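Appendix C. Worked example: Putative HTH-type transcriptional regulatory protein P0O15_10005
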Amino acid sequence: MMNKEFLTDRVADLLARSGFSVSDRCYVRPRSFDLAARRGGILLILKILSNIDGLNEKTAVEIRRLAKYLSGNPLLIGEKTRDHGLEGGVVYFRYGVPTVSLHTLADWIVEDIPPLVYAAHGGLYVKIDGGLLRKLRLESGISLGALASELSVSRRTVSKYEIESMDTTIEVALRLEELFGQELIKPVEILEQRSPVAGVQCLIDDKVLSHLAQIGFEVFPTVQSPFNAITQNEAMVVLTGVGKLSPTMMKKARLMSSLSIITKTRSAVIVDGETKVERVEETAVIETRELEMIDKTSEFADLMSEKQDR
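Step 2, the predicted output written as structure tokens:
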């Protein structure tokens, strides 16, 4: 089994070769995710673990929230669960985070072959096109009862396949495709259509973040990320770091710069004390005393622009 670092290398290389822009790695701890990657309108917030059972619920919740705030999608890449490897072409889920093997990722982003099977309690399942199934059954003159008998299921189950597009086993789906001579299995939706989050304010106990909220930003604090919050209004989204000026903070600022490029956001660190540093790569460095003189989101945006242009 590959260790985490080697697996991360493989994932980053595969993404880059497939036309994705890939962020620097999140070496700063704690870290809920390891990479961000973008290709066109697809933004992935990626966690990489050799054993996917290592993902805990707290981390999964943060990855999902980050993806939602950034209009992206969470994705876990791994090799095994419990004592066996992840199967190719199968999507697993860990606390709501879609999870695939490196092989499945390669099929999807390189060969454009989406996964068709997902794992759930009790086994492997597929999604079928219920509307097309009903159309084919009626055109073939097959009754609900006859089809149910052929599949060794109840009439109610067949009805649910058609009307509710209820998921089924691989065996039943393949039998249906054999009977009607058409593909009925639908790809598993790894990517969900997302829109920017608005109108949900979180509890904020940090003085700096509270000030940003008071001047009109929506502030979404983070716990396990290289930044302390995602700060946004209608005009911009800012990866926001808060803390003392230190080598660690500068390291975070560089990482935030890389992440902001991939996520198409802006980045700023707000530091205690005085500094002559105006920016670290694309991350604006703002002193708390400068922030205290600001009472409008537009003034904050102007201050960031001034520092980033110097």
